[in-house]
Each structure stands twice: as C-alpha cells, then as structure tokens.
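We close this part of the discussion by returning to an individual protein. Part of our work consisted of pairing the sequence of a single chain with a tokenised description of its backbone. What the numbers capture is local backbone geometry rather than side-chain detail. The amino acid sequence and the backbone structure tokens for this protein are reproduced below.
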Amino acid sequence: MNTRQLWAAKLAGRPMPAPRGPAVALAGTGLTPSVVPPRLPFTGRILGIDPSLRGTGLALLELAPGRTPLLLRCRTVTVPARRPLSVALGEIHRHVSEFLEGAGVRHVALEQTIYVQNFQTAQILGAARGAAIAAAAIRDLPVFEYAPLRVKQAVAGAGRASKEQMARTVMAILGHGRTLAFDEADAAGVALCHAFTWRG
C-alpha cells in the first residue's frame, strides 16, 4: 500500500497491513537480523584547508567528547602575485606538511572548488588543491572534501551565509577571542563541517 492508501485505511478504521522489515521477514527462519552499531561522532584532530594559490587558509582543530572544539593553530599561506606558480605550490605543500608533522592529525578536510567559468582559474585552483592534498596523501591521511554550500549549512545553518557571518559563527563555536582572517575562518569552518557531519 502506498502512503495515501495507508492513511485512507487508518481514517476509515480498516485493518492496517502487517509491518514489514528485517525482523518480520526473518521470523520463523531461525535467523536474526544484523544489528548496526550506532555511529560515533568524530574525536581527534582535523586539519581544515581552504585552498587558494595566493591565500590558502589552514586551521588545526581538536575535538573531544563533551568539550568545545579547540583551535590549536591557524595560518594563512600568503604568496605574493609576483612569485611564480611553482613557488606558490611549493609554499602550500610546505606549510600543510608543517601543520601535519607530528600533530597527530586523523583527518584532513578541504573545501571543494566552486564552479568557475575561466578554465585557467580552475586549473590554478586545482593545482593549489593538489599541492595541499599531496602533503596529506604521502602521510596516508584520509582526505574529505565538502562543497562550500554544505560547509555553510553545517556551520552557520544557512547556505548563503557571507564570509563575515561564517567568521563570526566559527569564532563563536570555537570560543576564540582573536578575530580570524577569512581564509583561516573558512579552513576552520570546513574542519567543523567534517566534525559535525562525519560519523565513524
């Protein structure tokens, strides 16, 4: 029966069909349905990355049960426009590696590249992402990617939240006193998005 038929039967006082499900389907077979254990929230350290060729945001967060998420370190990797692409990519890789080295990071979370019409811009953003991802990959760390809309919905509760709103919300969640740069706030936001939505 579809939903409309079920409601019609209920309102008319007619008998409802027998429930269907694993336990009912296996009744009398001697088999028991498998029990799926509850999924646990994230605990440990996440490196959030907001990749960009000239201003990559990095934020290292630690999460523990019953405790406010803690911002351990953050930085904006700034590379002047006059420096060539190869130097910028090297700087991104080096700084991500420094954040990961001996930090006990469990997961790395990145913001996905938004849709851009300019092919060259997309290529440059892809290269910046690749430099950051490579630093995590050579350490066998799992990398998770989230669309900007999903990050804003998970953290600020609104997919169209401005950078200012995101920064304020991130600082409120972290209880952080210092004003974060937008790139750092975005990196912390993607790390929080991973922590809020991931279930192990």
